[in-house]
Amino acid sequence: MEYRLDEIDRRIVYELMRDARNTSAPTIAEAVNVSPGTIRNRINQLEEHGVITGYTAEIDFERADGQLTNLYVCNAPVSERKVLAQEASAIPGVINVRELMTGRRNLHVVAVGEDTEHLRRIARALSRLGIELEDETLVEAETHSPYTSFGPDEAVPATEATDFVSLTGEANVVNVTVPDEAPIVDLTLAEAARDGVLDDDWLVIAIERGDRVLTPHGTTVVQSDDIVTVLSRSGDTDRVLEAFAATEALRDEG
């Protein structure tokens, strides 16, 4: 099932793709203006939903005792492709198997061997599985980059909706990170409604605070760095953002 990512999730994925070993939750938290606990909670969710599937090291095998890296371009029956990919990954020396959505050349296998004879043995092992080898070549180098669409956008203001979902009719759901100066900070939801900070047609669905997700009640106090999920029945997203915006921004608009 597809898992919807908001801006915080995307930035986490970007930073981990960029340099997972040297990236910490506090570093990402500072970049997106939330708490480290929130980042750790989001990483756990991304792992649980299969978005982040693992953390691996990138190895230069040529520098590691002069090992050879080879790419085998293969054909596998579409109906058997997934099973054959799993069996191929179990062959000693195979380090990566990629399934492609094509009729031919639909299985790419990367393997590491000590010499050409070792690579030939891997090729024979693939053939014994019923995989047809169409081409093969030595890999000279491989470059990895993070997905830039998930990266930082300097044009985005510090206080913003991290996600936005349109529902049936006019209703919208907005996720917003609450800054220190927001009018709603340190108010209970009941107080915010009484003082007109929250409109009657809004419903605060959830509050993410550090590594916890709170079920809101009238006595729940909104704190800075909370990530608040708000349902606006009228779909007035701008008004929702005003309620959670910094006071300086509101004065500027006035």
UniProtKB/TrEMBL annotation:
RCK C-terminal domain ranges (all copies): 159-246
Domain HTH asnC-type: residue ranges: 5-68
Keywords: DNA-binding, Transcription, Transcription regulation
KW Transferase (keyword) present: no
InterPro entries found in the cross-reference section: ArsR-like_HTH (IPR011991), AsnC-type_HTH_dom (IPR000485), RCK_C (IPR006037), RCK_C_sf (IPR036721), Tscrpt_reg_AsnC-like (IPR019888), WH-like_DNA-bd_sf (IPR036388), WH_DNA-bd_sf (IPR036390)
Source organism, top-level taxon: Archaea
GO molecular function: DNA binding
Coiled-coil segments: none
SUPFAM superfamilies on file: TrkA C-terminal domain-like, Winged helix' DNA-binding domain
tRNA processing is among the record's keywords: no
PANTHER family (alphabetical): LEUCINE-RESPONSIVE REGULATORY PROTEIN, TRANSCRIPTIONAL REGULATOR AZLB
Protein name from the UniProt record: Winged helix-turn-helix transcriptional regulator
